[in-house]
Amino acid sequence: MQIKVRVTGLLTEYFPAGKGILPVSLEKPLTVKEILQQIKVNHQLVMTVVVNGQRRDLSYVPGDGEEIVLISPLAGG
Amino acid sequence: MYGYGGNILRINLTTGEMNIQPLSQDMAREWIGQRGFIAKILWDELKPGIDPLGPANKLVMSTGPLAGTLVPAGGKVSFGAKSPATGIYGESCMGGHIAAEMKYAGYDVIILEGASSKPCYIYIKDDQVEIRDASHLWGKGAIQTEKALKDELGEEFQICTIGPAGEKLVKYACISHDFGRQAGRTGMGTVMGSKKVKAIAICGHNSIPLADLEATVVKGKEMLKGCFAKENLDEWQNYGTAGVPVWANNIGAFPTKNFQSSYLEGNENLDGKIMREKMVVNDKGCFGCPSPCGKYCYVKPYNVYTEGPEYETTALIGGNCVFTDIEQIGYLNYLCDELGLDTISAGNVIGFAMECFEKGILTREQVGMELKFGDLESFKYLVEKIAAREGIGNILAEGVKYAAEQFGGDSIKFAIQVKGLEWSGYESRSAPSNMLAYMTCDLGAHHNRAWSVTHDIAVGRKVLEGKARKVIELQHIRPFFDLIGCCRLQWVEIGFELEHYPEVLRYVTGFDYSQDDLMKISEKVWNLTRAFAWREIEDFGRKYDYPPARFYEETVTTGPNAGDVLSKEELDFLLDDYYKLRGWDLNGLPTREKLEQMGLGFVVRQLESYGRKIS
Amino acid sequence: MKIALNEARCSGCRTCQVICSLHNFNENNPKKAAVKIVGHFPTPGHYEIKICDQCGLCAAVCPAEAIKETDGVYRIDKEKCTGCGECIEACPSEAMVQHPAEKAPIKCVACGQCVELCQRGAIYDADTREVQ
Ligand code: SF4
Ligand code: SF4
Ligand code: SF4
């Protein structure tokens, strides 16, 4: 199965695909946290996960073809 | 002049004299606006050694060339003066609508000099400027005052006010505006209070001339739509900075129990989602903002309205004083806003007092009641005592550094401040670059200039190499927004690209800056404010850049980073690297070469005339 | 273009006013905008939007017959307008704006610029979009 990953804000600086979309192939369904491990992105850099406009967290398991958007932490004012 | 209100308004409160001078082309081109103007004016016009609360200090209010235009979020204004909290350069930035209004009235800068002998407010309607009696407002809350003046003068007026804390000269009194926006830091409300100015009310009817109107419209629309299209816009406008506390806690950066820890049990109750469900009544934004972060709240159990709490307030009232009920924090936020207190410093001061009590450094007799972390009555009691400068409040009103000097024991070790300014809401023993950012901020421990917790996470939280470089880069970019009159949050939070700004500045002002030119100007201002501190304090330098001993002697007590500490050697490594990259000497003072290279030859001459030895 | 409002969504940003003045006056001057944003703070904490709904009452009361309708939009003929202010008084939406530098009142001509830039959907076009 394949999913797509995109990041926003400060995270783009540390994301392999920058501002682009990163396709990720998975052998089995994984949580967002596990996926981040696979693509070597520190999960602490992710504040919120958004899938189809819904606010999710790192334990969310994306389905085939889904695009997950990782929201980077905010700088708090 | 294109992009500018075009004038500097100067009001002498002692004599009642006023004058309006045109803003010069050179001043505009070389210092851009807002914090650039403030730093230059304070350097030129303040004599070193003046009493920050005496008539010789000046309160300078200034905005930048993009404020009031179609460029996204052009609603920022800064206030500057010699700070009563730190004794060095002070400045604080605020959103809302008054920056734009100033420009429509024709002003980029308003300078308040001298001091009034009785309470007054400044009335500005285009070129009609008056010092009016404010005895009917004196003693009123900051928000009540704004409301009273709106009712009196009309909805078109934009008004900033101080609360009772500013009148009583509490060292961390803020200036408030738009029912929930504050210029909180470095005691700008205190300076306003010392001049007996309760409010500034502005209404303007003029247009801002644009160098290229059509191009500004096209580019402005493109920029706005660029912001509208950001994926994280909804997250941002639903929760604002209230989306941050849970993340900050999970990574171990949430100030807890007066910074003993970076992890707060029960922090999940502070999540933006819960706040939204329980209290938010309206998403409120500043002028021109495509991504409104203001969460206007009704806090039902206490029957009060307040904007926020935003992240810093939740961190410092919530975590630092150990409140895990968002409605209680909302209520305490309301109290601080109405009293006119900076919530960052107030949360620090009260957390500090609570710890002193716990440790037996403060007693029931001294305080007048028993203080406990997480106790609403304790907070309420102290905040009211502080604003009135009564009893223990009279000492706490001076800030944590002074209070620690009075209370003694080892309390100075956990008075969480740098240069006398209380620390913003990130515990940083596990984030060296952020630690360095707050240590070296020209104002004291403030997040406005650089924030880099994500950088620490990304490149390694124990790593020290390369951190100084990142901090310096951010110290030029972030406060760059405080030169142009725009909010930085579109860039910081929703990822709006920096590249747009030089282009749009060209359309608005006609000045052709490159990205590099803009960063150079930002760096020039940085060097100037550092020099300002040195001009004030003869032995200024490295020793003023250390955090409190808690951060290098005590380990984080709980949470994911329990056990972390940065040793003094590590801090020195960071500082050495930082000074070197800045072109400063080992004591952290700008060198002749650096100052001259920045076009600050006049600074060299002045420093020398005051006997400073420049290397 | 049928301008409609969802005031609960308004964040008070006044982008609508800036673009209105830029588009209709070639000036960056929100005080010349044909839409008013009125904050109700500190209580109950929301914004009110005052904008013309093209009801035509202004045209009916204008003694100089300076306000004419075309395609459902009422426009003021600045040449004919004497600046008497009758229409301002009559407007049930309190939507007409006065500016010290303009003799004629300022009135919405349904150009739709504000709709284009209202990110919040607080001002929207009911012809093309359902209420948010
Ligand atoms: S993001 Fe927040 S602070 Fe910045 S302009 Fe918008 S409402 Fe104001
Ligand atoms: S643009 Fe929209 S959200 Fe902004 S003030 Fe106008 S109506 Fe309100
Ligand atoms: S539709 Fe056009 S004229 Fe009417 S308020 Fe909006 S921008 Fe102004």
UniProtKB/TrEMBL annotation, chain A:
It holds the Pfam family Ub-Mut7C. Residues 3-68 form the Ubiquitin Mut7-C domain. InterPro entries: Beta-grasp_dom_sf, Mopterin_synth/thiamin_S_b, Ub_Mut7C. This is Ubiquitin Mut7-C domain-containing protein. It comes from Desulforamulus putei DSM 12395.
From TrEMBL, chain B:
Keywords: 4Fe-4S, Iron, Iron-sulfur, Metal-binding, Oxidoreductase. The keyword 4Fe-4S applies. Gene3D superfamilies: Aldehyde Ferredoxin Oxidoreductase Protein, subunit A, domain 2 (1.10.569.10), Aldehyde Ferredoxin Oxidoreductase Protein, subunit A, domain 3 (1.10.599.10), Aldehyde ferredoxin oxidoreductase, N-terminal domain (3.60.9.10). SUPFAM superfamilies: Aldehyde ferredoxin oxidoreductase, C-terminal domains, Aldehyde ferredoxin oxidoreductase, N-terminal domain. The keyword Transmembrane does not apply. InterPro entries: Ald_Fedxn_OxRdtase_dom2, Ald_Fedxn_OxRdtase_dom3, Ald_Fedxn_OxRdtase_N, Ald_Fedxn_OxRdtase_N_sf, OxRdtase_Ald_Fedxn_C, Tungsten_al_ferr_oxy-like_C, W-dependent_AOR. Its cofactor is [4Fe-4S] cluster; tungstopterin. Residues 4-206 form the Aldehyde ferredoxin oxidoreductase N-terminal domain. GO terms for molecular function: 4 iron, 4 sulfur cluster binding; electron transfer activity; metal ion binding; oxidoreductase activity, acting on the aldehyde or oxo group of donors, iron-sulfur protein as acceptor. SMART domains: AFOR_N (SM00790). Pfam families: AFOR_C, AFOR_N. PANTHER family: ALDEHYDE FERREDOXIN OXIDOREDUCTASE, TUNGSTEN-CONTAINING ALDEHYDE FERREDOXIN OXIDOREDUCTASE. Belongs to the AOR/FOR family. This is Aldehyde:ferredoxin oxidoreductase.
Automatic annotation (TrEMBL), chain C:
GO terms for molecular function: iron-sulfur cluster binding; metal ion binding. Transmembrane segments: none annotated. Residues 1-30, 42-71, 72-101, 107-128 form the 4Fe-4S ferredoxin-type domain. InterPro entries: 4Fe4S_Fe-S-bd, 4Fe4S_Fe_S_CS. It comes from the Bacteria. The keyword Transcription regulation does not apply. Keywords: Iron, Iron-sulfur, Metal-binding. Gene3D superfamilies: 3.30.70.20. The keyword Disulfide bond does not apply. Signal peptide: none annotated. PANTHER family: FERREDOXIN SUBUNIT OF PYRUVATE:FLAVODOXIN OXIDOREDUCTASE-RELATED, IRON-SULFUR-BINDING PROTEIN. This is Fe-S-cluster-containing dehydrogenase component. It comes from Desulforamulus putei DSM 12395. The lineage of its organism: Bacteria, Bacillati, Bacillota, Clostridia, Eubacteriales.
